[in-house]
Every structure is written in structure tokens, then in C-alpha cells.
Design a protein that fits this description.
Shape: elongated
Radius of gyration: 23 Å
CATH topology of the largest domain: Immunoglobulin-like
Strand content: 25-35%
Helix content: 25-40%
Number of helices: 2
CATH superfamily of the largest domain: Cupredoxins -  blue copper proteins
Largest sheet: 6 strands, mixed
CATH architecture of the largest domain: Sandwich
Structural class: alpha/beta
């Protein structure tokens, strides 16, 4: 096997490995681990996952969503939520007065979803019984506005695309030359 063919095969293998490895982390978000359940009054947005995924609270409880990721998320639901981006350190609160189950999701990251179970969770959640609070900010780290991470993902994706295109072009060039000699 010639040097170019070996380089092409190694490059394609490395790119495929990087693509598969990075695909899991960047595959639209969502909790890639097990569903988490918890109590308390806080849901963290961590590693593109609502943590806990299922939160159990008593009627009248106020739940705080805290973005702990360096990139933006939102909390969308039927009739309540925070539809604008929550950046690193920002919080959003919602109070749940009626028993029921209240599902929510992040529309930026498909698969990133969760639910708040109020009381025994048996009654249908009455979305008009949810009161939302205003956006608040916790202390933030320099450059933690969410754009740096999103930009770096784009740069990495672009570099992988260029490398993949180069490897494919090189592969087809080698193949074409071999076929021309045959």
C-alpha cells in the first residue's frame, strides 16, 4: 500500500473517530445519561441536561432554573416558561399552584426535556396555575455569555468539515489515478 493511500486511510479513520466521538456530545443536547429524579426547588441546566430531569414539589412551590452551562438554553412549556435565551449564571423562576405534571424542554437542544411533578402528579397540570418570575443573573465568569462556546463549536465543525473534504478529495484523487493506470 502506497504512502498516500495509508495517509488517506488514517485520515479518514481519524475523522470518522472524531465525528463519532464529537457527535454524541453535540448531537442536539439532551441528557445522555440516565434520567435523574430529585426534590428541592432548583433545576440546573448542566451539560445540556435538566438536572434533575424530574423534580417533585408540593403545590405552591417556586422552582428556580439555573443555567450552569457556558452556552444558552431556554425553558419552554405549554403556557409558561422562559422562551428567551438563559445565559451562563442566569436564573428563571416559576411557581406551581395546582397538582399535576408539567413537562418542559429546551428548544435549542432537541432531547433536552424534563418534568415537574406537583403533588401526586395525577391531575392534569393547569398551565394557568403557573406564575413565572423575572430573569435574574448570578455571578458570571468573564466571556461566559454563551457566544464563545457556540462560536468554538462552529469553528471545530468547520475545521472538521474542511479536513473531511480534503481527505475525501485526496481519496478520490488516489483512486482516480489508480484506475487510470489500470
Amino acid at each position: 500500500m502506497g504512502r498516500r493511500v495509508r495517509v488517506t486511510v488514517l485520515s479518514a479513520t481519524a475523522l470518522a473517530t472524531l465525528w463519532l466521538w464529537s457527535g454524541q456530545a453535540w448531537a442536539g443536547g439532551g441528557c445522555h445519561g440516565a434520567v435523574t429524579q430529585g426534590g428541592g426547588d432548583t433545576i440546573g441546566l448542566v451539560d445540556a441536561c435538566f438536572t434533575p430531569t424530574i423534580l417533585r414539589v408540593d403545590p405552591g412551590a417556586t422552582v428556580t432554573f439555573v443555567n450552569k452551562d457556558p452556552f444558552a438554553h431556554n425553558v419552554t412549556a405549554n403556557g409558561w416558561g422562559h422562551f428567551d435565551n438563559l445565559r451562563l449564571g442566569e436564573t428563571f423562576t416559576a411557581s406551581f399552584d395546582a397538582p399535576g405534571t408539567y413537562p418542559f424542554a429546551c428548544t435549542i437542544h432537541p432531547g433536552m426535556s424534563g418534568a415537574i411533578v406537583v403533588g401526586d402528579g395525577i391531575a392534569a397540570g393547569a398551565n394557568d396555575a403557573v406564575t413565572t418570575g423575572t430573569l435574574a443573573r448570578e455571578s458570571r465568569t468573564p466571556g461566559g455569555d454563551g457566544f464563545a462556546s457556540a462560536g468554538s463549536h462552529g469553528i471545530v465543525a468547520g475545521a472538521l468539515g474542511l479536513a473531511g473534504g480534503f481527505a475525501l478529495g485526496l481519496s478520490f484523487g488516489v483512486l482516480r489515478r489508480r484506475l487510470a493506470r489500470a
